[in-house]
């Protein structure tokens, strides 16, 4: 049965119990304390980061253009990929009972997972083509919003069509005597057809799109080097125009590069498994597959950071969202929910992220801070707590006067109330 298991390029699901051996389970269990936190980090950052990206694009009318609509579609597909790929794949890989989510979810998840991957790569290709026409042929008619919507609908339909053969060969099989269930793709008696589909999918959803993107950006690079701004612009205006184009080019080029690098290991793994499964050490098979899968999933975390780093307007709008809390004369309480956790480093990181984003807008102003209640680990105390010491330093740095010393509660919220000082 293993010989008929698909290793298609679009496969985003680590093998389940059906391909496990005691050695596989032992090796994966050994690295479980490392793998699970990495997957959780990818899930949290991928969902939260892409949600912020979508929120800013939808909220800001100035960002309602074709390129940002494409990037918004990319963020949505990445967020959906995190939600469907990460938790289900992790549970399937580590649960000794295999697939425990039922027959219906087996087909739904195995449909959505590759669709989101294909949508991402096709969207990146569409962005590259749009940038190519905007840079190399600036006088031609630009892509309209209606055309953009049609392209996005076509991308989703094409992705669903490419997944259809795999879904029709997906089976939910219960082994009641052994006590586990598998949800896998099998091409029983159709080994030749399986290989054709696997390599065709790899070609259509990875090699060709990224090749087209590479050629597009090569042409854009050549054009930018010898481009002269049209009209009667001053030298400074032309320089600003060129700098803006180069920044957009770097943004999209890095998005594509991150996608290509992150997805390369899982594609290489699937090809090697197709050629000869013995090329991969059976003792570490599931562990290697999980690490390759983790690398692929991490691509969903790259886009928000790259976009925030290289896109000035996105960074400005994101700061506006956070600073809206302190925009009025008398500011309301701000509540940021976080997960209850006993790990000080996780708690510290979450609080650090929020404090930095807020205090950046407070610098140079004088405030009275009342009713601080900062979420801390259960065993934490004010004395010697790294988070409390950091907050104390942060107060001095932002020239904030404390009405009360920070109180550390066993609570699941971060709350503070900021009032301006009348001078």
Nutshell version of this structure?
The protein is an alpha/beta fold and 423 residues long. It is 63% helix and 9% strand. Strands 3, 4, 5, 6 and 7 form a five-stranded mixed beta sheet that branches. The protein has a two-stranded antiparallel ribbon with strand order 1-2.
What is the β-strand count? Answer: 7
Shape: globular
Superfamily at the CATH H level of the largest domain? Answer: Rhodopsin 7-helix transmembrane proteins
* Number of structural domains: 2
Description of the structure:
It is found in: Membrane. It holds the Pfam family 7tm_1. The protein has 423 residues and is an alpha/beta fold. The protein folds into two domains: 321 residues, Rhodopsin 7-helix transmembrane proteins (Rhopdopsin 7-helix transmembrane proteins, Up-down Bundle); 93 residues. It is built from twelve helices and seven strands. The strands form two sheets. Strands 3, 4, 5, 6 and 7 form a five-stranded mixed β-sheet that branches. It has a two-stranded antiparallel ribbon with strand order 1-2. The longest helix has 41 residues. The chain starts with 21 loop residues before the first helix and ends with a strand. The N terminus and C terminus are likely disordered.
């Amino acid at each position: 049965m293993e010989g008929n298991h698909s290793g298609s390029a679009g496969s985003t699901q680590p093998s389940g119990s059906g391909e496990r051996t005691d050695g596989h389970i032992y090796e994966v269990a050994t690295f479980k304390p490392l793998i699970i936190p990495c997957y959780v980090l990818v899930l949290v950052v991928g969902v939260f980061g892409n949600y912020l990206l979508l929120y800013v694009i939808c909220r800001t009318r100035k960002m309602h253009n074709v390129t940002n609509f494409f990037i918004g579609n990319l963020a949505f597909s990445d967020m959906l990929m995190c939600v469907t790929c990460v938790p289900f794949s992790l549970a399937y890989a580590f649960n000794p009972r295999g697939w425990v989510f039922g027959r219906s979810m087996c087909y739904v998840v195995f449909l959505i997972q590759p669709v989101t991957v294909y949508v991402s790569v096709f969207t990146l290709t569409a962005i590259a083509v749009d940038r190519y026409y905007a840079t190399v042929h600036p006088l031609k008619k630009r892509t309209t919003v209606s055309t953009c919507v049609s392209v996005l609908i076509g991308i989703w339909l094409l992705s669903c069509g490419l997944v259809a053969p795999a879904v029709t060969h997906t089976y939910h099989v219960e082994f009641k005597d052994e006590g586990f269930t598998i949800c896998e793709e099998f091409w029983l008696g159709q080994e030749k057809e399986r290989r054709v589909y696997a390599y065709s999918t790899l070609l259509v959803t990875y090699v060709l799109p990224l090749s087209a993107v590479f050629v597009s950006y090569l042409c854009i690079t050549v054009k930018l080097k010898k481009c002269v701004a049209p009209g009667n612009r001053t030298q400074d205006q032309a320089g600003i125009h060129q700098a803006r184009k180069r920044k957009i080019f770097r943004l999209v080029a890095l998005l594509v590069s991150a996608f290509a690098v992150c997805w390369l290991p899982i594609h290489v793994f699937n090809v090697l498994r197709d050629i000869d499964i013995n090329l991969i050490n059976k003792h570490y098979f599931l562990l290697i597959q999980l690490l390759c899968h983790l690398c692929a999933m991490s691509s969903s975390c790259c886009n928000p950071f790259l976009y925030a780093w290289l896109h000035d307007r996105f960074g400005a709008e994101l700061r506006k969202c956070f600073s809206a809390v302190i925009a009025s004369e008398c500011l309301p309480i701000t509540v940021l929910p976080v997960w209850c956790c006993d790990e000080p480093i996780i708690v510290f990181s979450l609080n650090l992220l929020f404090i930095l984003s807020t205090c950046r807008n407070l610098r140079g102003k004088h405030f009275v801070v009342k009713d601080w209640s900062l979420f801390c680990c259960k065993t934490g105390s004010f004395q010697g707590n790294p988070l409390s010491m950091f907050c104390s330093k942060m107060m001095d740095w932002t020239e904030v006067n404390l009405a009360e010393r920070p109180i550390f509660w066993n609570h699941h919220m971060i709350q503070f109330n900021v009032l301006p000082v009348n001078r």
